[in-house]
Structure formats: C-alpha cells, structure tokens
C-alpha cells in the first residue's frame, strides 16, 4: 500500500524516482524499493516523504482518519494561485466564496439527494 501511494504521489508531482531520491538523500534504487514494497522507509524518511508530498504520515501509512487525507489536486491548484501578497481582507473574501460554493452545492444535493 505504501509503495502504491508513493508512486501515485510522485507521478502527481511530475517527478522522477531520481529526483525524489535526491531530495531524500538516498539512491534511486533505495527509493525504487520503497515504491515496489521491497523495503519500508524508516520513520525519519516517512516524515520527509510526507513533507515532500504535502500529505500526512497517517495518509502514507494508510490510516483512514479523514482529517489526514492529502489535499486534492484542485485545492492545491487554488492555493498555488493565491499570491503571497494577498491581503487578509482578500483572503477572507476567498474563504467566504469557497464556503458559499460549498453551501450551494450542499443545498443542491439535499434537494436532489
């Protein structure tokens, strides 16, 4: 399970095994063994992988807790398009709009569900 998640996360980030291995300070072969479930990374490496892929260690280890699921690709895209110089007021507006959209879809699902 860990290997499949690592591979999916790596592919989603458009990186090669060599690139990930270099960021971890290990060989490409060692990283390949993680993806192919031949070896398991130690705790320190699991933490590094979680940070690298912006997911929790719980997600990497297959724990089902919903609060530890990785951000969706769409959420990452939205976050990437918010400039660092956005004001607090603008950020509040963005969050309010997101909540509005979520509520609108929730109401639609209640009516059609």
UniProtKB/TrEMBL annotation:
InterPro entries: Cro/C1-type_HTH, Lambda_DNA-bd_dom_sf. Keywords: DNA-binding. This is HTH cro/C1-type domain-containing protein. The keyword DNA-binding applies. GO terms for molecular function: DNA binding. PROSITE patterns: HTH_CROC1. PANTHER family: HTH-TYPE TRANSCRIPTIONAL REGULATOR XRE, TRACRIPTIONAL REGULATORY PROTEIN-RELATED-RELATED. It holds the Pfam family HTH_3. Residues 6-60 form the HTH cro/C1-type domain. It comes from Candidatus Enterococcus testudinis. It comes from the Bacteria. The keyword Oxidoreductase does not apply.
